[in-house]
Structures are given as C-alpha cells and as structure tokens.
Design a protein that fits this description.
Blueprint (H helix, E strand, L loop, with lengths): L1 H12 L3 H31 L7 H8 L1 H34 L2 H12 L6 H12 L4 H8 L13 H25 L3 H9 L4 H12 L1 H16 L3 H7 L6 H10 L4 H31 L1
Helix pairs in contact: 2-14, 4-8, 4-11, 6-12, 8-11, 8-12, 9-10, 11-14, 13-14
GO cellular component, one term: plasma membrane
Membrane topology: Multi-pass membrane protein
InterPro entries: MetI-like, MetI-like_sf
Length: 286
C-alpha cells in the first residue's frame, strides 16, 4: 500500500508534455522576439540589400584591416581567458576552503562587482589609468617616473579592464566544482604520501576541470563580443570586432556591412565553441 502511494505521488508530480511545453513557451517566445529575430534580420540585411549579394563579406576578406581586427579580438579574448583563469583559480580555491564570515567576505568581494554596472567599472579604470589618474599620480609622487605614462587607450588597458570585469564568470564555476570535491579525497592522497602540490595536481585540479571548462568558455565568448569596456578604455586605436560593428551602425549607418561583420563574428564564435567542446570531450576522456 505504501509503495502504491509513493508511486502515485511520483506520477502526480511529473508534468505532462503539453504542460511542460506551455511552461517553456514564454521563454522561447521572448528569446525569439528579443534575440533570434533581430539577429536574423541583421544577417539577412547583409545578404539582401535589396538584391542577393556577397559584397560585404568579400569586403571583409579583401581588406586586411578587418581581418586584423578580428584576429586582435580573438587574441584579446584568449589572453583575457588565460589571465582570468590564472587569477581566478587561486581565489576560487581559497573560497572553497573557507567557512563562516571569512567565506562570506570573499564571496561578497567576488559577487559585488557583478551587481555594479559594467559602464561604471569601465569608467573606474579610466580614472585609475588616465594621465592624471591615481596610478600615474602615485608613481610621480614616489619618484618612480618623471612624466606620466600612457596607460589608457592601450591594448594592455583593454586586457586588464576586461579581465577585471569578467573574472567572476571564471571564479564561480570553478568554485562550484571545487566545493563538490569530497575533502576525503585530498586527505587520502596525503595519507598515501602525496605532498601539497602532488595532491593538488593529481586530485584537486583534474576534478575541478569541468568548472574550469565552463568558466573559460563563458569568459572567452563574452570577451569576443565585449563592447563597452574596449570602447571606453581602448579608444579608436584598439578596435575590437564589437566596437567596429557599433561604429558601422551608429556612426556610419552601414547596417548591411555591420550585419556581415556580425555574421563573421557569429561563425567564428560557433566554430571556436565547437572546437572547445571537442577539447572538453577529450579532457573528460583523459
């Protein structure tokens, strides 16, 4: 009788297929109207203007400046992802081993930037790095430099600012993976004679790789399409593909060519994500 009751409750708790589709439908409609439809309209405009043409895509392939900007964008995204991993993994490891108020304090330091506008954080970096900013004034007062350094509107400034903005997206997935690792595994490795580094390399790091993969792919994809920070901190000398698309739409009003740039960026992003997924499967197999 008890088994029958449990079975009835489990069946009653499951939603039927029409009910599940009804729950998902509003989200699908919102995604279609707010994202898929505008993207499709932009891509169609790059091909039909008004007659079918490949002119805009040929322009991207024929003019080296656009390919250089695309390569610079991929290079910047790669560097930002590596820096976010190198800086974020130790912090995620510390977070996973803390408890009480110390854990809450470190978590607040990671989460509070996510609650702050990207625009505000980008302007904060301008205040820090400009010629009369805090960094240059400090170095001048200490006598380390004789004249202000050019820190703003450089590729280095873009990388540093983007790493700061996107680092929480690397830390949180790694932290989640590290918290799911049983502490007994590390203690067992220690009991078998492994040192701190050996235990970390043989146990902790391999088991945390799913979080590393998730964080890396999020940071990399967000870096490819990042607009606000490169536009404010990098200036016109350090264009990325996203700032170039914004320039074509807002300044030059060349929507068909902007659609072609967006299409190329979308193809590159999907291709790199596909490669990353294959690497992920390889990593799991290894």
């Amino acid at each position: 009788m008890a088994n029958t009751t449990i079975s009835e409750h489990s069946v009653a708790g499951q939603l039927s297929r029409p009910a599940s589709l009804a729950l998902v439908l509003p989200l699908v409609l919102l995604l279609g109207l707010a994202f898929l439809l505008p993207v499709a309209n932009l891509l169609m405009g790059s091909i039909f203007t008004p007659a079918p043409t490949a002119e805009h895509y040929l322009r991207i392939a024929q003019e080296p400046i656009f390919l250089r900007i695309l390569l610079r964008t991929v290079q910047t995204a790669t560097i930002v992802t590596l820096l976010a991993f190198l800086l974020g993994y130790p912090l995620a490891l510390v977070m996973s081993r803390l408890s009480g108020r110390a854990a809450m304090l470190v978590a607040a330091c990671v989460l509070i930037p996510l609650w702050t506008s990207v625009l505000v954080r980008s302007y904060a970096w301008i205040v820090l790095l400009q010629r009369t900013g805090i960094v240059n004034n400090t170095l001048l007062n200490w006598g380390l430099i004789s004249q202000p350094l050019k820190l703003i509107y450089t590729e280095g400034a873009v990388i540093v600012a983007m790493t700061h903005v996107l680092m929480p997206y690397m830390i949180l997935p790694i932290f989640s993976s590290l918290r799911s690792i049983a502490p007994e595994l590390d203690r067992a490795a220690r009991n078998l004679g492994a040192g701190h580094w050996t235990s970390f390399l043989a146990v902790t790091l391999p088991l945390s790789l799913p979080g590393v993969y998730a964080g890396a792919i999020m940071v990399f994809i967000l870096s490819l399409g990042f607009y606000v920070t490169p536009a404010l901190v990098g200036g016109p000398q350090n264009l990325t593909i996203a700032t170039l698309i914004g320039q074509q739409t807002t300044d030059l009003l060349n929507w068909p060519f902007a659609g072609a740039l967006a299409g190329v960026l979308l193809l590159v992003t999907l291709g790199l994500v596909g490669v990353f997924r294959r690497f992920l499967r390889f990593g799991k197999g290894a």
